[in-house]
Amino acid sequence: MPVADAVRRDRSATAETHSRFAEMSEFWAWLAERREASPYHIETVGLDRLDAWHREPNSADLVHRSRRFFAIRGLRVSTDHRKVTGWTQPIIDQPEVGILGILTHTFDGIPHYLMQAKMEPGNINGLQLSPTVQATYSNYTGVHRGAAVHYLEYFLDRGRSRVVYDALQSEQGAWFLGKRNRNMIVEASGDIPVHENFCWLTREQLVRLLREDNLLNMDSRSVLSGITGETHSTDNGPALHSTTQLLSWLTETRSRYRLDRQVIALSALDGWVSSPDRIRRDDGRFFEIIGVDVTATHREVSRWSQPMLAPCGRGLNAFLGRRIADRFHLLVQARTEAGTFDVVELGPTVSCIPDNYRALPPDRQPRFLDVALAAGPGQVLFDAVHSEEGGRLYHAENRYLIADVGEGFPLDVPDDYLWITPAQLAGLARYGNVVDVAARSLLTCLAL
Amino acid sequence: MPVADAVRRDRSATAETHSRFAEMSEFWAWLAERREASPYHIETVGLDRLDAWHREPNSADLVHRSRRFFAIRGLRVSTDHRKVTGWTQPIIDQPEVGILGILTHTFDGIPHYLMQAKMEPGNINGLQLSPTVQATYSNYTGVHRGAAVHYLEYFLDRGRSRVVYDALQSEQGAWFLGKRNRNMIVEASGDIPVHENFCWLTREQLVRLLREDNLLNMDSRSVLSGITGETHSTDNGPALHSTTQLLSWLTETRSRYRLDRQVIALSALDGWVSSPDRIRRDDGRFFEIIGVDVTATHREVSRWSQPMLAPCGRGLNAFLGRRIADRFHLLVQARTEAGTFDVVELGPTVSCIPDNYRALPPDRQPRFLDVALAAGPGQVLFDAVHSEEGGRLYHAENRYLIADVGEGFPLDVPDDYLWITPAQLAGLARYGNVVDVAARSLLTCLAL
Predict the structure, then answer these.
(1) N or C: which end of chain B has fewer CB within 10 A?
(2) How far is A142 from chain B (nearest CA, A)?
(3) How far off is chain A from B262, nearest CA to CA, in Å?
(4) How many CB atoms lie within 10 A of CB A84?
């Protein structure tokens, strides 16, 4: 064996020892060490104090001086698929497609997933577990192609890995205008070096960490939904509806409803107040646009500032489910949001910020919200609080709840709802832009 | 039996006798009779002479005075997925989703499909065979919901039929801006009255009629591709690529390429000449926008005029195919057109108007065009000329060609091409906006 190879193998073995965990306590120690070694400081500041960001002269849109990254613009929405049929709002405009990729490798017969402890400015908890790779197209097509992003080559070069899952998926339609990322899981063999801040976790370990609040980040939960289908693929018992019927229902909702959008000036919004400091609703609902200053080690850039979207209150993403003919089914909802790519996507039974509706009479509240909030301990299959994307969203938390409401719950549901098995939902998610980010997260929480 | 029922059953039996054919000669006699009974007159006229259509004051866009139907507008396109990376062109803007539906029913154990002999102003041959229902959303949501369109109730009311196929599908991206129609096949039982101009055809009869030039219209070919999957669904032998790999390739092309569009004034086009009479390219290539006056019986309106898009020359839609590991595979191409809904769709190996490229050197011609044009009699699996949508396109003909180029043809193909079995292509087509209209037509020609 040449010396160089021996040295590499030795380093690799050492790294592996530190990056795989026989006991969860080892993981917690590793994470604590990573948190210690990755100091950061986040401060909220006025929008007028953001370095390198400015308001465009005519529109007052918030843009970066390089014209890259993203922008905060205005959107006028008109739809016949919401209680409120027309409104304006700020929206995050980020047309660039990124890769969110998780690398998998089998050690001792057990598949492991390579996760990254990463700080994002909007994170509660600072470091959360991200996918192996989070990279925008600019990251990997510029002059430094691949050099700056660890493991990117496994996702770009089909000769280096086998694709397990690869779909173009949406993010929150309420906040992003048609934003999509390529969600990938690829399997590689051979020696894989483990860089600082990365570790290998088994599926069983990931399942345990999903029960922890604010640890597995949104991108991780979204990508991991791509392996939930594997578990269920042999589960061919009778579902209430055939795939043909599911697709027909999706086609019908996409044909029936209308979603018209127009990008407008951020200065032209109705019901929103723009101060030098922030942009918010005059009634304090929904969300605010604020600024943050970030100082961090372990990021490509150690200091920057940026606008962020901060939701007003904790959200609830809940699936109600029940057994039908001995198969567990979930109640999905065909949802239209401001930024939805193609009119509707399939979301959880309930998806809202409950505080926004507290003052309203019951008939103006989201359907099934009362059922979800009343779910008792005997019904709850999953219940944890998770964060949404910390690169654009500030302290955006949602409670993720899955409740078995029992066979007394009526099978007959309104037009916009449909009973579907987790395996069917995972099957539809393979096609992209069909299952929304909240439903994909819940699928991971339920079926991983 | 009550008298009314007896009469109805009797009428129905009589209608069935006239509307099903034991011999093809009976069909031809029926069609000749229908042509005789449905006189029409089409005349091309100058755009400035169109009744109820005008040029908008600032943009010169061609619009109907009711603001309904469709409009001809300008489009500026920028993409990195074509040899020419930027251009402007006129485009048909018709955002409304319609239903294209075929009703199926089993007589004597044999599935039959209810087809309609229908005149469209752009048709070569006048009457062609259309789906059971061609209806826009306005047709069936207005005050006269369902009344005006025969058989529409079978497609709108899930209690009256079983869905076989239901997908939102694209039309030609080169000519339409993201136009989509709901393609449906539904099965009904019980007595189904047969109205004038409708007839029941078996799959075998449809296959024979597909070999006739300009008879089964574009909408019929598109919808019928929905049953090609049924034939192949048991065909589970090894394909070159798994479904996961196919979806990954589609995801990669949709992530890699960029397609930016901007609707602009029809008066702002480069390289196009607008006269009071027509709109055409200064070099005579691609297509023209012309006007027609129509007089017809058997249509809801007996006289109208409208603009139409007239392609300059006959097109070629060709699939090259070969056996790989004993399975026949087709070579699909990831194509980006001006109006493509989501960056790319899977099209035939070759799709172009050959005359547009005759004067160009070989390296500027579409790839594999030479192979397709050179296909000999021993290689040709299908070869017929069919019309495209006759409601908006005037005498738009394409040669539909499927050639088995043999196992000497290289397996290794450029990035934008992929080998796929007909069953896999039919499977992808179920999801909508994945397989383009030319490839769906060819799938019907090959696999019905």
Answers:
(1) N
(2) 13
(3) 13
(4) 7
Residue type, position A153, single letter? E
Of B167, B247, B248, the CB nearest to A247: B167
Helix axes B422-429, B243-256, angle to 10 degrees: 60
The answer to whether the Cβ–Cβ distance between B244 and A165 falls below 8 Å is yes
Name residue A225's beta-bridge partners.
Answer: none
Residues of A in contact with B342 (CB under 8 A): 342, 433
Q: Give the whole-angstrom CA distance, residue A170 versus residue A176.
A: 9
Beta strands in A252-326 (DSSP E): 259-264, 272-274, 279-281, 287-296, 303-311, 315-324
DSSP code of residue B405: -
Contact of B241 with chain A, judged by CB distance below 8 Å, is answered with: no
Tokens for A26, please give them: 């080892």
Contact A251 B182 (CB under 8 A): yes
ipTM for the assembly: 0.91
Q: What is the pTM of this model?
A: 0.92
Tens-digit pLDDT string for chain A (448 aa): 333 333 333 344 344 456 999 999 999 999 999 999 989 999 999 999 999 999 999 999 999 998 888 999 999 999 999 989 999 999 999 988 999 999 999 999 999 999 999 999 999 988 999 999 999 877 776 534 445 799 999 999 989 999 999 999 999 999 999 899 999 999 999 999 999 999 999 999 999 999 999 999 999 999 999 998 765 444 456 899 999 999 999 999 999 999 999 999 999 999 999 999 999 999 999 999 999 999 987 666 788 999 999 999 999 999 999 999 999 999 999 999 999 999 999 999 999 999 988 888 988 899 999 999 999 999 999 999 999 999 999 999 999 999 999 999 999 999 999 999 999 999 999 999 999 999 999 999 999 9
Contact B35, B118 (CB under 8 A): no
Q: Which residues contact B247 (CB under 8 A, 6 or more apart)?
A: A166, A167, A430, A431
DSSP state of A363: G
Please check whether residue A261 touches B, CB under 8 A.
no
